[in-house]
Structures are given as structure tokens and as C-alpha cells.
Amino acid sequence: MALNKYSRIYTQDDSLPAAQSMLIGSGIPEADLRKPFVGICSTGFDGNPCNMHLNDLADNVKLGVNGLDMVGLRFNTIGVSDGITNGTPGMRFSLVSREIIADSIETISGAHYYDGLITVVGCDKNMPGALIAMARLNRPSIMLYGGTIKGGEFKGEKLNIISSFEAYGKKLNGQISEEDFRGVIRNACPGPGACGGMYTANTMAAAIEALGMSLPYSSSRTASSADKKEECLKIGNYLKNLLQKDLKPSDILTRASFENAMVLITVLGGSTNAVIHLIAIADAAGIKLTVDDFQAVSNRTPVLADLKPSGKYLMEDLAMMGGVPAVMKTLLEAGLIDGSQLTVTGKTIAENLADVKPLGEEQDLLRPFSNPIKPDGHIQVLYGNLATKSGVAKITGKEGTRFEGPAIVFNSEEELNEGIAQGRIKAGQVVVIRYVGPKGGPGMPEMLKPTSAIMGAGLGDKVALITDGRFSGGTHGFVIGHIAPEAFDGGNIALVEDGDIITLDAVNNTIHLHVDEALLSLRREKWVKPAPNVTKGVLLKYVRTVSDASHGCITDLQEAHVNERETSDRTA
Question: Which pLDDT band holds residue 484 (cuts at 50, 70, 90)?
Fold first, then answer.
């Protein structure tokens, strides 16, 4: 079978001489025009630790690809740093960037007829964006994770990016000096790599390894390790094998592989952002995945990993213990994942893990099944009159499982940040942050700055937060996000007033506003749908096309409308 299945359209058709002239003019030897073309996409850009080194990694990938009778063609797409943009209007572009990344990778790879694709990605939206594009293109593809950052240190305290966010709350509360505040900032990010805990980047990297779309160990290696460089140099061998076997994402991305990914991120205590991202990837792959599927996995899967943000370990610690494959081997032996699923190695998960040792009693990062951190999953899907289409909670067990209190309502993250600085947040309250959903934000920004400030102020275990926006993978505490319908669409979260009693129950999975329906109806009559916060550009396009959070915030308008018709509201 010819390995240049797609690129030969340009390189072997005499009726397209201009295409061949331009390829030769770009530096490709004429003799190489018969070789398969491999697109190598990097989301590298300056000024962000997650992405700063990716272009160098992509150069090593190209070096390895070119040595295997293939032509590596590097290109770039964008990224948005969640860590930098959190707490600012810039964060509105974060989730939107997932769609831009997917669209741009699909565009250049489809237009230029690349035979295969390797993406070198590092931050939160880079990875789901890359996988969405791979699923759409359905050509031999592998994702290479740029790797996790090493932990920082200041005055004997281990640091990571969340330390900086929480230091702000400690500063406001008078717990640390200005000098120590600056010391944390200077030392939290000591070099390249994605945020070090089980935050969204490492969550998605681990999930994609479980899906079978990245090489074993890719998700847990540190960015600056010799192993990561070696992975780059050798990944071309695996891509060539996929070309020879014509193994495509559709052969790897199955219903069972998504089940494996959901199990792994539950055991690891991963980010709730995985819910919208995996739903979106599955949609691109033609597989129906819903929020209720995550709940089903949580019902039968414990949280075992003592990883940050709520635990004490970082991903680099797991890497030294055998990495994600050691966790997967533990789960395979326990019968929690399906080892028969194909991966980008050309082998099954079970074959990849054949010589891997499971994690045993020599460590305490991964608890035994007999002593879990939480006997069921931390990702809990709640329904009720405040979330008729669902809300997603991250409950590790350390926050309790039930919270009831009076609402204190903020119509933007900026309002809430001012409220925190003014000392308006009191113990026992349910903090409501609304009009920050996919359309209302727009872009469903993460609420990491206020949650970290609340943690730093010592209120993390004394208040609950609900929002139609998102929470960062670094958020911990009693938090419920992804409330749908969102306030912008007239969901009941738009009708909450200060002092209303709200009950959050993560045992019965309910979220209830204690306001009589007649009173809610009166409030609804007075409610006026706000104008979009934007009037032009990419954010306005997003408002016009995005589906709700319960459907993964996908922007395929037709599919979004189909999903809306198929999904009926649920009430508690």
C-alpha cells in the first residue's frame, strides 16, 4: 500500500505542476515528492511555560520523521495560557481557542493533503483541539504531550502555579508579607512544562494516553527530561507504522476507549474540564458521550490518587514511580479498564502494559482500593431547578458532600473579585457567579482567581460556589460549575437573589433553589435577556454557534441544534 495516500494528489499529478514547483521551491528535494508527507503541528509560543519549548520538541520530531523516508512539514497554531489569562477578560478566549486550534489543524492538514499528523501540544485547550482535528481528518495521527513542569520551591515549601493564585488570598488576609508574596511568584514556575498538578493539562494528557492517541508515558514525563526528547525522536517510527497499517483515529477512538479515559481521570482526581473536552472529542469522532456517562463511571470508580490540587503530589512525582502506565496497569489488573483497545503503538493497551509493574505498597500516591480517598468518583453531575440540563461538581470528599446556605450573587467574575477584596464573602454562603457561561462570558471563563483567593483567605471549607462558567483544574473546595441552562439563556441561575437558600447535595446529586415556583415565575417575567458582551470578532461568532456546557460547548451549529432537540430538561 502506498504511504503517500493523500499527498500524491499534489505530488504525482502532472496536471498540478505549480503545486510541485512550490513544494520543490520550499526546499523539498524532488526525489522526496514520492515520500509520505507528515504534518507536525506545534502550539509553541513565547511567554508561557506550557508552550515555550514546544517548537524545539517539534524540531526533534521532524528530525526523527525525516530520517525514516518521510517528509516532516512543521506548522504552528495558536494557544492561550489559562494561567496567565485567568481573572482577566482575556480568559474569555481560552475555551474559544480549542475550536480555533481544531479548525486550523484540520484546515492546513486537509488543504495540504498530509498523509499523517503529529501534534506537539502543551496547554489545556491544545490537546482537545488537536484530538478534535484528528478525529475529523481521520488520518494516521499521534499526539505528543509537551510534558509537565517541575515543581518550584520557596522557603522550604513546594510550589506550583496554584500556589501563586492562593498567595494572593493569603496576602489579602494578611497571612503573608509582600516579600513572601513576591517570593512565591518568582519561584512557582521554574521552567518549561504544563502546570504540575492534576490540573486540566495533565488531566487531558492522561485521558488521551488512556484513549490510545499518545504513546505510553507521554502524559507523565517532565518537559525537560531526556525521555521527552527521546520520545520526540522516536515518534516517527510509530507514525510510519500507523501509515503502513492504515490505522486511523476511528480505529482507536471507540466507546470503550472513552470509558477507559473516564475511569483513569476519575481515579486520578482529574479536572472537571475533561467533561466538556471528552464530550467534544467524542462528538468529532461520531460517538455519543453525555454528562450522565461521567456520572455512571463515577458511581463505580473510586478516587485513589493523592495529587494536587486537593492532594500533596505533582505529576513529576508520579513520573518517578512509573507514570500513567503504572496506574493503568493497576486498573487493568483490577478489571477497571478494557485492555483490548487499540493504541497508536499499533498494539492494544494490554500489550503496551505487558511489562509494566503496577503501583504497590511501596508508595502512597495511589491509594489501595481498600482505602480510597473517595469510594466513588469526584466528578458528580447534579440536576435540579437550578440546573435542569445539569451542573458538574468536583467533590473529592474533603469538602463534605452537602452544603446549604444563603446565596450571595455576582453577575461577573470582576464583581466577585471586588466582593472578596471588600470582605463581603462570609462563612456559610453559597457564592453564585453568573453570566459567565459559554454565551454569557462569552467563552465560559474559569473562576480560578476568586476560588484561589477564597482558599487563601481561609474560607475554602466554609463556602460553596456555583457558576455557569468553569472551574480550573487547579480549583478545589465545594464547587459546582457548567450550570445549564446558563444565565444568558434565561436559566434559573439568572433569577437567584441575595439571601435565597440553596441546597447542594452531592450524595443525591441535586441542586435546589428554595424559591416557590410562583415567585420564580414573577422574577422570570421581569428578567430581560442581556445583550452579548461583545459586538464583533471571534467571541461574537462563538456566542452565535456554541452549544451549552452539557453538550461540550461544541460549535458545529447543526449538531448543537440536534442535541438541543434531543435533550429534554430534567428537574429534581
Answer: very high
Q: Give CA separation, 362 vs 198, 289, 313, 321, 366, in Å.
A: 21, 37, 15, 10, 10
Give the chain's radius of gyration (CA, Å): 23
Following CA atoms 544, 466, 508, 304 in sequence, which dihedral angle do they give, to the nearest 10 degrees? 100
Helix (H) / strand (E) containing 481: strand 478-484
Beta bridge pairs of residue 513: 502
Q: Which of 412, 472, 547, 550 is catalytic?
A: 472
**Rounded Cα distance, 66 and 178, in Å:** 52
Query: Partners of 556 in the beta sheet?
Result: none
472 is catalytic: yes
- SS3 of 178-190: HHHHHHHHHHCCC
SS3 of the chain: helix, strand, coil, percent, to 5? 40, 15, 40
Question: What stretches of 219-344 show up as alpha helix (H) in DSSP?
Answer: 226-245, 249-252, 255-268, 273-284, 291-300, 315-320, 323-333
pLDDT digits (tens, 9 = 90+) for 11-46: 999 999 999 999 999 999 999 999 999 999 999 999
- Reading the block at residue 383, the C-alpha cell is 440536576
* Distances from the Cα of 133 to the Cα of 283, 343, 426, 504, 557, angstroms: 11, 17, 45, 37, 17
Nearest C-alpha neighbor of 373 from the set 307, 285, 425, 466: 307
| Joined grid coordinates for residue 87 | 481573572
Per-residue pLDDT tens over the stretch 133-156: 999 999 999 999 999 999 999 999
Residues forming beta bridges with residue 381, ordered by sequence position: 392
Q: How far apart are CA 245 and CA 487, in angstroms?
A: 49
Query: Residue for cell digits 493533503?
Result: 113
Contact 75, 40 (CB under 8 A): yes
